[in-house]
Amino acid sequence: MKTLIKFFFTFLIPVQIIFAQEQHIYSQKETAYVNYIKPTNQPAYPWADREHRVGYWSGGYDVANFNYWEWTQNIIPIEATVTSVNIKFRAIKNNYLHTFKFYLYNIPYGLNSGINLYDQCTINNRVFTSEVYNPNTNYEVFVDLTFTPQSPVGNGWEVWNAINNAVKSGNYYFTLGIREAPNSIYPTWNLIQFENPADLFKPAIDLTIYYTTPNNYYTFKNKIQSTENYGNLILNNDLLHPIASGIDTLFLSWGSQNSIRTAELPFLVNWNSTNTTQKYNYWDLQSSGYDYSLHHNFQAIPSSPSELKAIFLPTVNTFIKNIAVEFNSLNFGNIGFKDPWFYYKDANLNWYQSNEFKNYLSPLNIQNNSLTSYGGVFLNQVPDPNNPNKPYYSVKADYVQNIQLQQTGRTHKFYFQGWSATPEGSATFQNANAVETPVVFNQGNATVQTILNF
Question: How buried is 419 (Cβ within 10 angstroms: 0-12 exposed, 13-18 middle, 19+ buried)?
Answer without folding.
Answer: buried
